[in-house]
Every structure is written in C-alpha cells, then in structure tokens.
Amino acid sequence: MDIAFIAYDVNQIMSGDANAWDYLSLTADVACLALPVATGGGLGVRAIEQGVKQADNVEDLFKWLDTALDVNKADDVVDAGSSLSKSKYILNQNAKTDAKKAADNLPPEIKDKVYDFYKGGSNKYTEFTVQEMDNGNYLATMTKPGNVPGSYATYYKEISPDGNTVDVYKKTIDPSGNLVHNKNKLESGGK
Fold first, then answer.
1. Across all residues in the chain, what is the average pLDDT?
2. Which end of the chain is more exposed for a tag (fewer CB within 10 A), N or C?
3. How crowded is residue 157: how many other Cβ atoms within 10 Å of its Cβ?
C-alpha cells in the first residue's frame, strides 16, 4: 500500500505541478514504508493541505487544527489539581488482551489494580495507558470510541505508589473535542 502511495507522490512531482505539499506527502509515505505499523502518511499530509486551503483566515485555521489534531484531548486528560507535565508512559497498548499482559510488567504494588481496571472494560476499548505522574502516583486510562463518530469516553484510575486507589472518573468528549461530562466513578462505585 505504501509503495502505491509513493508512486502517486512521485507521479505528482514528476508532472511538473509539484508543490511543497507533494514533497511533504512523499516524505511521510517513505517514513510510513520504513515503519511497518504505519501507512498513508501522505494522505494525512494531503488532508492537512485541504484544511489549510479551506481556512478563510488564521483563526479558522487554528480552529480546524484544534479539531483535526484533537488538541483539546490533552487539555481534558486530568483535573487541574493533577500534574502530568513530566509524566512518562510505562504502558501503552491498543488492545485489551495486550494491555492485560503488559500489566504484568508494572510495579508489583499497582499491577493487580491496573489489571482489574482493564479487565472491567469491554473489548471495544482501543487505548490503554499507564503514566507515572509528577506526584508519584500512577494514572491508568482506557478509552472507548463513542457511538457518535469522533466522540469517545476515557476512564481514569489514579493509584498511589503503595497500590491504593486515589480516584476513578470518566470523561466523555464530543467530536469537536469538548468535554461533555466528567463523572466521578469512585463515589458511584464504578470501575
């Protein structure tokens, strides 16, 4: 597939009507060829090109980029009182079975809590992470695509280094990246 995209990019460049976007697309497709898990980088570049062409002014461009790149997702990850600015991911999986297996490699004090947290989610979840937070706690997450295209819900479980659950909550995000609601699951007895 990547070779077909590269051939298309080369054809665009050889046609004499090439622009900077064509060269960026070729670069992205070559990079995807080198990475076995990625494909279609040039399509992503071309989608951004179309968005730039569609922007009437700089403000529209930034609004489009905010939605397209889902910048708000990073803003909505944690409550204002928590800090992940220097956090690092110690688990990052895209399938429930892989995430449960990877939990075995976590610090012994938290691995059972994380495993049970992931076990409680359905197979519809597509992102599983654990981060070490600046305050020494761990933040486990699992994200499920919503029924409305582009929306999603993320469950969070904050665990202290000694394995105690600090907080459990769920955030639902709409297709524009806006927070729909933030529900405390610890008080309601959830996950």
1. 78
2. N
3. 25
Distances (CA, A) of 155 to 23, 118, 127: 40, 10, 10
DSSP-based three-state secondary structure for 44: helix
| Cross-strand pairs, 144 | 153
CB of 158 closer than 8 Å to CB of 134: no
Nearest-angstrom CA–CA distance, 113 and 158: 10
What mean pLDDT comes out for the span 26-55? Answer: 69
The torsion region of residue 12 among left (phi > 0), alpha (psi -120 to 50) and beta comes to alpha
pLDDT tens digits, 77-115: 444 344 444 568 888 999 999 999 999 999 999 999 999
Tokens of 77: 């990850």
**Selection from 85, 167, 97, 174 nearest residue 131 by Cα:** 85
- Amino acid (1-letter code) at residue 58: V
**Where does the pLDDT of residue 8 fall: very low under 50, low under 70, confident under 90, or very high at 90 and above?**
confident
